[in-house]
Amino acid sequence: MPDALYDTIGRGYARQRRPDPRIASRLMAALGGARSVLNVGAGAGAYEPTDRSVVAVEPSAVMIAQRASGAAPAVQARAEALPFRDQAFDAVMAVLTLHHWTDRARGLAECARVARQGVVLLTWDPGADAFWLVQDYLPAFAEIDRRQFPPMSGYGEAFGDGARVEVEAVPVPRDCADGFLGAYWARPAAYLDPAVRAGISSFAHPGTEAGLERLAADLASGAWNARHGHLLEANALDLGYRLVVAQLAKA
């Protein structure tokens, strides 16, 4: 995760990026019986288990400073160079952070190195269709994300021979409590709120003004509802977010 980026945009992250209980439940189930967990790219600590021994790794001092009192101890370090011995933790988790790593293959190898049992990742499938915000208004986001997120087929190789990797879809609830890019698919006006955008790293890219102006105009005219209003009948939507669960083959 680029330190400078989150030292700049991360100052209000804790207010917008709160764990959604339904997504949290999926993550906790995927961690299984792991008693010790390393959270890589931990940010302000959303989704960290409270019933297990947790250590957080986060490169940005600004993000670490937002961690709640009583949160798991945090080490300022990067995914690509985890400062822990081999198999130091039962499991490693990483939540919507891979696209910020400078060397994703190395970061995944490091996660596998320090885990005894498995690695649990919440990520995005670059082979998935982009949702309406990206398709209609901010297509550059999809181009950037497809370059940054590893393909689903690459995780088996990343975790080594003998690893068993399962990939599960994680539909986003219409009232998602977290504030990542796809969280407001059923609340389109939220993307016009600067406070909401401050919790979404994609909006740190330049050139979003024209797309947001088109969205505002379409909401005002009813054009958005004419094209996408049918989505509001759904309780959750598959936007390409995926849970990758790797069970490692360790001697």
Layout: helices, strands, pairs:
Elements: H1 3-9, H2 13-16, H3 21-31, E1 36-40, E2 53-57, H4 61-65, E3 74-75, E4 89-95, H5 104-114, E5 115-124, H6 132-137, H7 139-148, H8 155-159, E6 164-169, E7 172-173, H9 194-197, H10 209-221, H11 223-228, E8 236-237, E9 241-247
What does this structure look like?
With about 250 residues, this protein is an alpha/beta fold. It has a domain of about 170 residues: Vaccinia Virus protein VP39 (Rossmann fold, 3-Layer(aba) Sandwich). The strands form two sheets. Strands 3-2-1-4-5-9-6 form a seven-stranded mixed sheet. The protein has a two-stranded antiparallel ribbon with strand order 7-8. Helix 5 links the parallel strand 4 and strand 5. It starts with a helix and ends with a strand.
Summarize the structure.
With 251 residues, this protein is α/β, with parallel strands linked by helices.
